[in-house]
Amino acid sequence: xxxxxxxxxxxxxxxxxxxxxxxxxxxxxxxxxxxxxxxxxxxxxxxxxxxxxxxxxxxxxxxxxxxxxxxxxxxxxxxxxxxxxxxxxxxxxxxxxxxxxxxxxxxxxxxxxxxxxxxxxxxxxxxxxxxxxxxxxxxxxxxxxxxxxxxxxxxxxxxxxxxxxxxxxxxxxxxxxxxxxxxxxxxxxxxxxxxxxxxxxxxxxxxxxxxxxxxxxxxxxxxxxxxxxxxxxxxxxxxxxxxxxxxxxxxxxxxxxxxxxxxxxxxxxxxxxxxxxx
Amino acid sequence: xxxxxxxxxxxxxxxxxxxxxxxxxxxxxxxxxxxxxxxxxxxxxxxxxxxxxxxxxxxxxxxxxxxxxxxxxxxxxxxxxxxxxxxxxxxxxxxxxxxxxxxxxxxxxxxxxxxxxxxxxxxxxxxxxxxxxxxxxxxxxxxxxxxxxxxxxxxxxxxxxxxxxxxxxxx
Lengths: 278, 171
What we know:
The complex is a heterodimer of chains A (278) and B (171).
Chain A: H1 3-8, H2 29-43, E1 50-54, E2 69-72, H3 78-88, E3 93-99, H4 100-106, H5 108-117, E4 121-127, H6 162-169, E5 173-178, H7 182-194, E6 198-204, H8 217-220, E7 222-223, H9 232-241, E8 246-252, H10 269-275
Parallel strand pairs in A: 1-2, 1-3, 3-4, 4-6, 5-6, 7-8
Antiparallel strand pairs in A: 5-8
Helix pairs in contact in A: 2-7, 4-5, 5-6, 6-9
Chain B: H1 8-35, H2 39-63, H3 98-122, H4 126-151
Helix pairs in contact in B: 1-2, 1-4, 2-3, 3-4
């Protein structure tokens, strides 16, 4: 590598904006932001060739904290906005960020269909099993027996299994990371971005304010004891029986991504108008 | 699979990565505290980031490096997921006091000292062992310095985390 190349290399700092995060001190999302910027430095795409799209929630603030193009959209609709962006601008690297409430509840339907369409983008969900921004309500991934004043005795409702749903719906890459492992998570995100098609990275990111017991996650997470598989059925069977704390790439498939058609949709204005003629 | 560095270059690259991760973490802490108007603690974390940056620069100068070398994952041989010198992200509180910040720094320096001692005992390379023992001695000095600093800082009252307008109204 010559000196010119060294000078041109982008570092994680090049992807961090001057805005300081306003998350609670100690939140796992800080290290996820760090992992994302490290991952972008690994793939060396300049910030103006990357778009970070989000919905609503604590973790959805991430676009503003990067120097990439950002779109902070409406609740649960980040994947819809990102799909439109990627289809219109396939030359961009599109990363979607959000939380478990935004992605699995309000945006649950978009999640399944984004997996099914397999558009080439990466979806990072910072899962803390709670709605943090709105003061601690149970989310789709909350344990059924989580007891608090807003759901006394727990909701009694089975928790959503996002990785299995992603596999069943057709996601081409499925991984689980942990915010307490920022370097490992950065590598997962970089792999997800490089993998063609829809990549889903679930990151366990403790909410120290409303779920302080999640500080114990660092004691129970461990590298998945199995190699990644390209068989979604096998990956799903493994995930149906794991305890939610196995980290790493769990599925790397070979489905063809939704085809990019950059340049082919250049219909003239007259053509477009003719489509709307009554 | 983690392996112990077997060359001086690899060892120093790991040591540099440790220092840089500590810089990054203390800077994150300083930013958090500034955002939450805890200026005394923010200043303290900023100072700590500055110290760690000096240690990192010292290693760069010693090795004659212009840029930090990439460290292969298998060479990142510290226990756990993060550098022993980086305080865990979840051990800060928006109302924490300078004494707490020093407590975190002390624990980080102690972990680093123990790590270098352990590495010196594991390596089969004489130059790596010598460098690891030097690093261990430096970290021991830092432990003494932080301990002395803590003695000058008042210990927090028992109710230091009481907040009349807490974020958790559900308690």
